[in-house]
Amino acid sequence: MEQQHPYLRPVDLEASFKLKNDHDDVIVEILTLTALKTAIEGVPDTSLIFHMDGRNDFAAWINDVVGCKALSMEFAKVRLNEKHPEETRKQLVKILDYTLTLLEEV
Predict the structure, then answer these.
(1) CA 18/CA 15 separation, integer angstroms
(2) Mapping DSSP to helix (H, G, I), strand (E, B) and coil, where does residue 90 land?
(3) 35, 44, 22: which is closest to 65 by C-alpha?
(4) N or C terminus: which one in the chain shows less Cβ crowding within 10 Å?
(5) 39 neighbors 28 (Cβ within 8 angstroms)
(6) Rounded CA gap, 18 and 39, in Å?
(7) Number of compact structural domains in the chain
(8) Bridge partners (DSSP) listed for residue 18
(9) What is the pLDDT of residue 2?
């Protein structure tokens, strides 16, 4: 039986990433990096801005919960383009695509 890389395993429900539109409006709870990629691809711009404006909640969750320091550092380099959040989205998805491909090959 093939082992799954630890960074690809689901986190505990209480440690999920709560993807929000604002401080109260939770859209979805994310348990895996693959689910994070899917969510970022389809999340409304307002949610992307909420999680990236003045901070990077994605990088913090990847670092603190998933434990993937290298991916967290790559996410932390991404800056929000508020006028064109789609550009920010593309950068995040590209980083996740690359990382997920590498982790799936291990």
Answers:
(1) 9
(2) helix
(3) 35
(4) N
(5) yes
(6) 11
(7) 1
(8) 29
(9) 62
Residue at 59: amino acid letter? A
**Global confidence as pTM:** 0.94
80: containing domain: 6-105
- Alpha-carbon gap, residue 42 to 14, rounded angstroms: 23
Amino acid of residue 7? Y
pLDDT digits 0-9 by tens, 41-64 = 999 999 999 999 999 999 999 999
Q: What is d(CA 38, CA 19) in angstroms, rounded to the nearest whole number?
A: 12
- Does residue 1 sit within a domain? no
Dist. CA 75–CA 63, nearest whole Å: 10
Joined together, the tokens standing for residue 74 give 């790559």
